[in-house]
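Agenda item 2: adenosine-5'-triphosphate complex prediction
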Amino acid sequence: MIDFKNLHKKFGKLVVLNGLDLNIKEGGIFAILGPNGSGKTTLIKCLLGMVIPNEGTITYKNKSVLRKWDYRNDLNYLPQIANFPPNLTVLELIEMVKNLRPKQSNEQDLIKLFGLTDSLHKKLGNLSGGTKQKVNIVLTFMFDSNLIILDEPTNGLDPIALIHLKELILKEKAKGKTILITTHIMSFVDEMADEIVFILDGKIYFKGSVDALKTQTKNDNLEHAIANLIAKQYA
Ligand SMILES: Nc1ncnc2c1ncn2[C@@H]1O[C@H](COP(=O)(O)OP(=O)(O)OP(=O)(O)O)[C@@H](O)[C@H]1O
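Presented output:
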């Protein structure tokens, strides 16, 4: 479904992606992991067309995405840091996004699910971090798309919201959607991911199931299995 080939991205002298190859098949939950600054967000932004790679190709459903925009109608994206206009209310933002996207939206159930009814008329600049993240989630899931990209979706969420988020993701997976998630929360990965994609030194260092990683590293604890993977590389 998504194919990255020989992807290179530098920011000045900093090499972030260095000939990265990755194929993501349709359907399931893929956790994009790697140390801070390893290029997870950069990879996602290349797929979104928000960062242009120096070299390499990216195809989505067998069509190149580079400098094309149509494919974006088929995806929902939750950014790591949502820079919402502080003077708009939650409702005004939802209405604005609905006006911008020519797609059927289903925000009412999500607003209820995340307990946002009482916050609809509050200005975004006055919301707590966790409440902003709930708004971010509503904006992401209110459209029906085949590809869902979540950059650190659990940021600031309380346990109840986290349970709702997990249920939401699993519901989308059950519909056959493809879900890419970056996170540093290993318990979340252990519980949710069908496959781990681990980025190190600008390349894919490991791709496989959570169980395969645990077997390969001979470690049943995912946090330790990942640490073991990195330690081996730098040994
Ligand atoms: N627009 C940019 N200009 C310059 N450097 C950038 C830019 N975007 C990212 N970088 C750098 O590229 C590297 C990779 O950043 P990226 O955000 O992709 O990492 P990440 O794996 O998502 O990190 P984290 O786990 O901390 O979120 C970092 O060193 C970052 O500072």
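Discussion summary: The two ends are 35 Å apart (CA to CA).
Owner for follow-up: CH.
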